[in-house]
Please model this.
Amino acid sequence: MRRAAPQDVLPETVHVPPADADSVYCTLFRRNPGFEELAEAELQTVAPGHSPEEGIWISSNPVLWAETAFGTDGGRQLAAAATLDALRAQLMALNLRAENVAIALRRIPRKAKGAREAKKAIADCIDADVDYDNADLRLLLIRTHHGYRVVLPADGGDGSWIEANNRPHNYLVALPVRMAKAMLNLTVRPDDTVLDPFCGSGTIPLLAAWAGHTAYGSDISSQSVQNAGENVAHFGRHATLAVADARTTRQAADSIVSNLPYGLYSHLPEGALEVVFANLKTLASRATFVSSERLDDALLEAGYTIRRRLSVEPTRFERFIYVTEMTALPAV
Model:
């Protein structure tokens, strides 16, 4: 994921205190049932921080929220208070100025009350007219059951990757696009090469290429590789794809991200996963796998260090995401 660009590029008619080392950034994110743990782990990797309230992430670094799997909005937090009077006091102290201001609203949850009164109070604290069409200062008011936050919105980056939901070829057991995106953000660093040795219809190589990485994908099924190639080409992206067995492939990469085959859809005989891990550990120093089975023993036996184990949709179809690394690649 790209590092967040500097924020607060504002017209000369606007006065907002500049960002500094003490600035706080607020990111709104989806807490889809069963995906809360994954959403927070992804944000913790992208911009270390904490979630003080449902759907809100606070960090000392800005977040390109559109390039995360669950982010919906965000920017630099200007004020936060439990009461409207305290919010007014904070905003007045900031001496905000503009010719025209527009205030967007987010309620978390949607039934949170008091938002209209808060919008009027914010406008009264700024030397500006309210004009949603010609605003030179745009603010975001977040109303929760716990209080109010006022945020200076920032460009969230490129969120076009979500179009991968409309890929021509899909499988019943294909990895959901948001989950694949989160797994990449948990694992991949800038300029990494990425390998998916069980690429199926190519969701992970497609998203890796979309994010600007050199992407490799392989699968033992030639039909899957063909479908993956057509999916990647459909969006004008490029990934190097090959028919190969994960037990013997020699395609090295900086990181591996993969959805392991399982159940009736698995082509791996009993005991083969251990052989897969023994091979893959020689190809990349970082790897993230998702499986419907617990893999702790197999991964540890193969020499992986498990950095995170996340449970996804535990009450429906539970899957486990393992974020791992090798301290050093073994000699081949």
In short: The chain has a mean pLDDT of 92. DSSP finds eight helices and 15 strands in the chain. The radius of gyration is 23 Å.
